[in-house]
Amino acid sequence: MPFSYNSESIIESFDLQAMLGEGVSIYVYGAAWNSSTWLSDPTAALVAVNDAFDSVVDLSFSGIQIISSLSSMGTGMAFAVCDVVYKSRTYMDPTDVGTLRTAIANALNTGESGLHLTYGDVVLGSSKSAS
User: d(Cα 96, Cα 78) in Å, to the nearest integer?
Assistant: First the structure.
C-alpha cells in the first residue's frame, strides 16, 4: 500500500512520543531510489542516506530504517531516523526546526543520495517532557 500522510506543518504531533516523553523524530516521505519505490536490495540506499544524515552538524542517531512496501495497491518508500539527538538534546527547540530541516535537505541533495534519491518531504517531530 502506498504511504500517505497529511502535511500540515513542519512540526508534527507524534502521539506515541508525547506519551513516552522526550523525543525527536525525523522521517523522509515519498522517497524513491533511482526512480523506484520498491527495493529488493536496499543496501546502497541505506548507506547513502545514513552518510547524508551523518554529515548533518549537531545531529546524532543510532541508525536509519527504510520502509519499502510492495503490494497489489502499489509501492511506497520512506526513511526513519532512529534515536535522534540534536544539539545534545532529545527534544528540539521550535526555533531549530528550520535550520535542521534545511541541513537535512542539503545533505540528502548532495553526494550519493543526491544522485539517486528523490523524496517528497522531510518531516520533523519533537516532544518535550514537562519539567
Answer: 23
Mean pLDDT computed over 64-72: 78
68, pLDDT greater than 90: no
The answer to the question of residue 31 being in a domain is yes
Q: Does 11 reside within a domain? A: no
| CATH number of the domain where residue 47 is located | 3.30.70
Cross-strand partners of 23: 127
Cα(30)–Cα(105) distance, integer angstroms? 14
Q: What is the model's pLDDT at position 48? A: 95
pTM above 0.85, yes or no: no
Strands (E) located in the chain:
11-12, 23-29, 32-33, 59-60, 63-71, 74-82, 85-86, 117-118, 121-127
pLDDT(12) > 80: no
With respect to residue 96, please indicate whether it lies within any of the assigned structural domains: yes
Residue 13 is assigned to a structural domain of this protein: no
Number of domains in the chain: 1
